[in-house]
Amino acid sequence: MDKKTKIFFVIFACLIVGSVAFTFYKIEIKKDYIMEGQIDCDPTAEKCFIWKCDPASNVEGEKCTGDKEKDVWYYQIAKRNASHIPLCDPDKDETCDPWTCGEGEKDCSNTFCDDQNKVEQEVECSDPVQYNIDNPPAEEAVMCEEGDETCANRINDKSVEGIKNTGE
User: Fold this and answer.
1) Are 125 and 82 in the same domain?
2) pTM listed for this prediction
3) Over the stretch 150-162, which tens digit does the pLDDT of each residue have?
4) I need a surface site. Which of 9, 86, 125, 158 has the fewest CB within 10 A?
């Protein structure tokens, strides 16, 4: 090998080592990259993405269980710079919320469903108004006092639901 070839390989090796070192520093030490995750969304108040189970799937986590609560999931997409995510376990620490953005935090956002990104996600969007119509909040049962005939008579009225007679 001549001198020019040796210099070329030394410079090339230095560039590779420098590139690997810079990438290691940026990812492992500074944690300068964006994390993205699907987090719970409240369909009563926000336009959420809707994930539905696949009845034909045999993959655990994708197949239907028969429980509507587990077979449909409403989510939003959260993005945050990894250097701002706290090192805590949300399953063990109730105060740990890794996806809440700090005030003025750069590279932090929550994405809700709209006509454009639902195509990208290949899912449907929830409509809070329609969701609240289809799933009204459960009303607490009204308890009638013993001997209260007015309340007891309302039990027989089919327009009033959730009234229970405690009289014997």
Assistant:
1) yes
2) 0.66
3) 766 665 553 344 4
4) 158
